[in-house]
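Z., the sequence and structure:
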Amino acid sequence: MMFPSDTMFGVFLVSQLCIGVPGNLFLFLLYMHTFSVQRHVKRLMDPVFSHLTLANTLTITFTLTPHIASSFGVRQFLDDVGCKAVLFMYRVTRGVSICTTSLLSAFQAITVSPRNSKWAWLKFKLHTQICPSFLFFWIINMLIYIRAIETITATRNLTLVGRGYVHPYCQTRQFGNQNSGTFLSPILIHDLVFVPFMIGTSLYMVNLLYRHHRRAQHLHSSRVSSQTSPEHKATRTILLLVSCFMVFYFSNNYVTLYSFYAHKKIPRLAGLSGVLSSCFPTICPFLLMKNNKIVSQFTSSFSQ
């Protein structure tokens, strides 16, 4: 039986899908056009940005589609194979998005590091590590989550009690069993590697910006002190990106862990988890458009 609240929630999910997917696709296609036609405009970080928007597009699609179907009362939308495929793609693309955001933070930290820094020698090798890093991210996430997805099956009982993962159409195979943690362990291990790394590089950049601000305050010329280099503008954008990621990441993890360990399952928590996990991928392209030279050139071409 459908309730008006379910329909309203479904409309909200559709609107999130219709904002996030076009936003990421627009930025991705714009980067692809730049790489093929305007190579002189290409910057070091642009391939990382484009890869992040691609991962975001896939994450939003595989996250929200089942929740939208469930909100509008579609039954048996996914069978066992469908559950494994959709959740596998969601987990892999979400993991790739986390890895790429970590890479983005690390690359920017190395880029803005002083010449006498111990990381300075890496500046000249960054461009050679981009594509191998992308390949590594996809492979490692597939290997991590292929084991977890083996524990997933289509939901067979509407009344679920005990420890386990709940999705609108899927659940862990051994629901309520102590071994159901097999699904959660690889996710936590993966995140414990990349998220602290992202936090560390972000704090390093915050420290660099603070020291730069302190030096600027000692300058006598107010004109010079008010100028901001493109590198520092990019650093602020990435720090904003990482901050938004952290807010939604920890919020989503709290809801996911609560739902996993709750004795009696609350179906609405699964939808809330889907919304939170899609918020960062939805907002991300619009944050990347800020102070983006490629976007500025694209918009200015229509005003000529």
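Residues 42 and 229 are 18 Å apart (CA to CA). The first helix runs from residue 4 to 37.

Let me know what you think.
H.
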